[in-house]
Design brief:
The complex is a heterodimer of chains A (about 200) and B (about 90).
Chain A: H1 2-20, H2 25-45, H3 49-74, H4 80-87, H5 90-113, H6 125-132, H7 137-158, H8 163-172, H9 174-179
Chain B: H1 2-11, H2 15-39, H3 44-74
Helix pairs in contact in B: 1-2, 2-3
Classes of the chains: A mainly alpha (about 200), B mainly alpha (about 90).
Chain lengths: ~200, ~90
């Protein structure tokens, strides 16, 4: 059981090192996903199955989908088709697949063995929930407010793309600068906002 | 793993890699919390990991929106090129 923990930890560290040394974003994301999966296996071995499931769902699922979409957005160019054909070459995905295969073998072995965790016994999700909604209730409220603020902030930052360059453009033209008497702060401020 | 993330944060000059190394550092901190909670058999470590998870999700959403905006303005993701706000 301790051997499983160390194998998963080694996979996590190796995939993180390989992630840092990649030049391509998508290749690095492959290694990062393997690293998160290895950490999830570590959590399971440590006796935290609820946290392991959340790690796979939120980190390797939601956050990685965001990264993959943004990384793909930046790579759209004239040589996108050539790059995509290059990504499918076996030299690229063989190393993350090898590391993930090590993790898969380990998970199958753990599921067949059905033994306990390292050291102390397994902390069930019920205990986590009892502590979470007992003394940590204020933390729950703060986390929900943080998520709401993050959502609103991300929407606000992401939806300003058409407005900002036009204001700068108005400030650069000489006529607009004349009727605001050279005040660059007010230049373009009275313009009707154009719908993107 | 925390030191790995910190090293890559200092070394890499691509904004996406900076965000990814932030994720690695948060993940390492959460792993430390869960290991400590498992060692003393307390559920508090997992609770703190849930908070770290929520914070990482919010941070990544805002950070990626900022990265998209920066890429549209500057057409590059080089951190060293973004110092034109310097006085």
């Amino acid at each position: 059981m301790e051997l499983a923990f160390y194998i998963a930890g080694a996979v996590a560290v190796i995939s993180t090192i390989l992630m840092l040394t990649r030049m391509n974003v998508v290749h690095a994301l492959l290694y990062l996903i393997v690293s998160f999966l290895a950490v999830a296996v570590d959590f399971y071995v440590l006796g935290a199955p609820f946290v392991a499931a959340l790690e796979v769902i939120v980190y390797a699922g939601a956050i990685m989908v965001l990264f993959v979409f943004v990384g793909m957005m930046f790579n759209l160019g004239q040589h996108a088709v050539k790059m995509e054909r290059q990504w499918l070459s076996p030299g690229i995905w063989s190393a993350p697949a090898l590391l993930a295969a090590v993790l898969l073998i380990e998970v199958v072995y753990l599921a067949k063995g059905s033994t306990g965790a390292i050291g102390a016994s397994v902390i069930q999700p019920k205990e986590v929930a009892l502590v979470l909604f007992g003394p940590y209730m204020i933390g729950i409220e703060l986390a929900s407010m943080l998520l709401l603020a993050g959502m609103v902030g991300a929407y606000h930052i992401g939806s300003r793309q058409a407005e900002k360059p036009e204001i700068q453009h108005d400030a650069d033209t000489h006529e607009r600068r004349a009727d605001t008497s050279g005040d660059l702060v007010l230049a373009g401020a009275h313009q009707p906002s154009r719908t993107p | 793993m925390f030191s790995l993330g910190l090293t890559s944060l200092l070394v890499r000059r691509n904004l996406l890699f900076v965000l990814m190394s932030l994720e690695v550092m948060l993940n390492a901190a959460g792993l430390a919390f869960v290991v400590a909670g498992s060692r003393w058999h307390q559920a508090d470590g997992q609770v703190v990991f849930l908070f770290i998870l929520a914070m990482a999700a919010a941070e990544v959403a805002v950070g990626l929106a900022l990265v998209v905006q920066i890429y549209r303005h500057f057409q590059s993701l080089d951190v060293d090129g973004l110092d034109e706000m310097r006085g």
